[in-house]
Amino acid sequence: MSTVTLDEMLKALSHPVRRDILHWLKQPELYFADQEHPLSLGVCAGKIERKTGLSQSTVSAHLATLQRAGLVQSKKVGQWHFFCRNDAQIQQLLAHLSQDL
Amino acid sequence: MSTVTLDEMLKALSHPVRRDILHWLKQPELYFADQEHPLSLGVCAGKIERKTGLSQSTVSAHLATLQRAGLVQSKKVGQWHFFCRNDAQIQQLLAHLSQDL
DNA sequence: TTCATATATCGTAATATCGCGATATAAACA
DNA sequence: TGTTTATATCGCGATATTACGATATATGAA
Predict the structure, then answer these.
(1) B95 touches chain A (CB under 8 A)
(2) Computed from CA positions of residues B99, A99, A25, A64, in that sequence, does the dihedral angle turn out positive or negative?
(3) CA distance linking residue B14 with residue A42, whole number of Å
(4) In a designed cystine with B101, which of A30, A97, B31, B97 is the match (CB 3.0 to 4.6 A)?
(5) Is the CB of residue A13 less than 8 Å away from at least one CB of chain B?
(6) What's the average pLDDT block by block, 10 residues per block, for chain B (101 residues)?
(7) Is the C-alpha dihedral spanning A16, A88, B14, B26 positive or negative?
(8) Smallest CA–C1' separation from A59: which nucleotide?
(9) Cα–Cα distance, B19 to B34 (Å, whole number)
């Protein structure tokens, strides 16, 4: 894991809303049960936006931060952007922290 | 672990200099072998300051941030302030992240 | 094509963080 | 007492982050 990415990941984790989003995405069936689209696609940005209560643009920026840090992935299906955790990266981060912190 | 402290800890970890300091304090005999005082006391602030290359006031603020987050502890001996890791807290943080992140 | 929906980007204001020098405080020493 | 050493705190400018509304872009539907 590059130092730049480690820095980006920890900066991304340093905001409570972004941690909330990661937490919700861990069990989408628990937090986004009402999504029309199958949760196997991920959770669409609008759902996350409404759950935070913040503005659309703010949440879009938070999601972009998480994605730049490699902590989430997104796929575009039609007009929707579905987000899911990048658990491999998250596990790598945890392993790295356990080792080096 | 309270949410406030989790937030403080992750914010503290989101700066590379503070992560460096934590890393150095993990093996003080490796990074501060030239300290006049026994390393069992911890590493004194001035040593850390010179290792970072930053100003005294800046490093003092970083150490205060780490301490508020509970990631390091300090003891005052004479005119020196010795810092060491709070490994119990760090382990608790890692456990919490492994569980909830 | 026009309209509605979903998301990203832009511009901006408010706030937080960072780093510095200057100064305050406290301890040790002459 | 005054002086030096070690650290903390203050004040400030520079930069980064956060949040917002407005607008742009893209997709899909009418």
Answers:
(1) no
(2) positive
(3) 28
(4) B97
(5) yes
(6) 88 98 98 96 98 98 98 97 98 96 93
(7) positive
(8) D19
(9) 21
